[in-house]
């Protein structure tokens, strides 16, 4: 779980309401610390799991309203945020579960398995944001899950080459077999008809998922709603960039340039003023 690439974490956004910057910053520190245990340093898998177990003990202490045995200052701040905003602890435990997966799991058998990982690693961020603003209704939570899942999948498809260097493949193995794409092809960065069809299929699913959750941005008022509109159109624009390269994510990581950000800004304003998403989800069957 690469928090630095985590589009779901609007820590530094100028649109983020000032009152939310401190609590979100503390939540970010907690997630960053756990992610570093799973991904950084030279620890063995067993040592990483042991450190995550210690970290879980810190969450357990917050739940029990007692001093944490590890990272006492950090968990003390988290306890304050949880008490002030009445945040649930379940999303934090889900994030820890994802960190444990990062240690042991480097391939995903099928889309269901990948989405289960996203449910633990991405969805909790949206859930916590909604609880922070008192908008955690069932409808909003479902849409936030869709947006956060799509955000994470977009980062995976941007980083196919970089993840391969870390011996990670997030493309579902069942999908790779279906489209006759091999790991050897990823290693060589081969962009052929099989690869194009696979990526078109994956991107169609992501676009459908992102658009499904987009109405949330129109229900959230103020600057946070604008932030969400921008995140949605930023994600959609990255998908367009991948498509325009012919799905070649090997030669250069698809990112947004100045012109792209201008497009995102215009689309964000239009979405906010028109109260319409302005994008229709494509048919998955059409790209199968």
Low-confidence stretches: 2-8, 282-288
What is the correct CATH architecture of the largest domain? Orthogonal Bundle
Number of domains: 2
Overall mean pLDDT? 91
What does the overall shape look like? globular
Beta-strand percentage range: under 5%
The helix fraction, in percent, is: 55-70%
CATH class of the largest domain: Mainly Alpha
End-to-end gap:
28 Å
- Which structural class do you get from the secondary structure elements? mainly alpha
Major sheet characteristics:
none
For CATH, the homologous superfamily of the largest domain is named as Farnesyl Diphosphate Synthase
Indicate the radius of gyration in whole angstroms: 19 Å
Polypeptide structure, described:
This protein has 14 helices and no strands. The two termini are 28 Å apart. The model is unreliable at 2-8 and 282-288 (pLDDT under 50). The protein has 288 residues and is mainly α. Helix 7 runs parallel beside helix 13 (222-244) and helix 11 packs antiparallel against helix 13. It has 2 domains: 1-104, Orthogonal Bundle (Farnesyl Diphosphate Synthase); 106-288, Farnesyl Diphosphate Synthase (Orthogonal Bundle).
Task: Summarize it.
It comes from Paraburkholderia madseniana. Keywords: Transferase. By secondary structure, the protein is mainly alpha-helical.
Please name the defining characteristics of this protein:
Farnesyl Diphosphate Synthase; mainly alpha; EC 2.5.1.21; 68% helix; squalene synthase [NAD(P)H] activity; 288 residues; disordered N terminus
Question: How are the SSEs placed, and which strands pair?
Answer:
Blueprint lengths: L17 H22 L5 H19 L8 H14 L4 H15 L6 H11 L1 H10 L5 H21 L1 H6 L7 H6 L4 H6 L4 H21 L1 H5 L2 H23 L13 H17 L14
């Amino acid at each position: 779980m690469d928090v630095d690439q985590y589009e779901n974490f609007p820590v530094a956004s100028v649109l983020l309401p000032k009152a939310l910057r401190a609590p979100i910053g503390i939540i970010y520190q907690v997630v960053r610390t756990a992610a570093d245990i799973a991904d950084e340093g030279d620890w063995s898998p067993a040592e990483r799991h042991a450190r995550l177990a210690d970290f879980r003990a810190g969450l357990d202490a917050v739940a029990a309203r007692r001093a944490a045995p590890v990272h006492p200052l950090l968990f003390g701040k988290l306890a304050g945020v949880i008490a002030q905003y009445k945040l649930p602890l379940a999303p934090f435990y889900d994030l820890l579960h994802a960190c444990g997966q990062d240690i042991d799991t480097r391939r995903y058998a099928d889309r269901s398995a990948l989405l289960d990982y996203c449910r633990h690693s991405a969805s909790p961020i949206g859930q916590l944001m909604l609880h922070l603003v008192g908008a955690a209704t069932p409808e909003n939570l479902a849409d936030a899950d869709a947006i956060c899942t799509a955000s994470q999948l977009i980062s995976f498809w941007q980083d196919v080459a970089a993840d391969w260097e870390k011996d990670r493949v997030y493309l579902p193995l069942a999908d790779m077999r279906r489209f006759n794409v091999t790991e050897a092809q990823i290693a060589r960065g081969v962009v052929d008809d099989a690869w194009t069809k696979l990526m078109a299929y994956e991107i169609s699913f992501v676009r459908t998922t992102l658009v499904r959750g987009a109405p949330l941005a129109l229900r959230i008022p103020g600057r946070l709603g604008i932030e969400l509109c921008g995140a949605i159109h930023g994600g959609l624009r990255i998908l367009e960039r991948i498509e325009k390269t012919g799905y070649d994510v090997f030669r250069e990581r698809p990112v947004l340039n100045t012109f792209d950000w201008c497009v995102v800004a215009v689309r964000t304003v239009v979405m906010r003023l028109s109260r319409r998403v302005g994008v229709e989800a494509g048919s998955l069957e059409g790209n199968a």
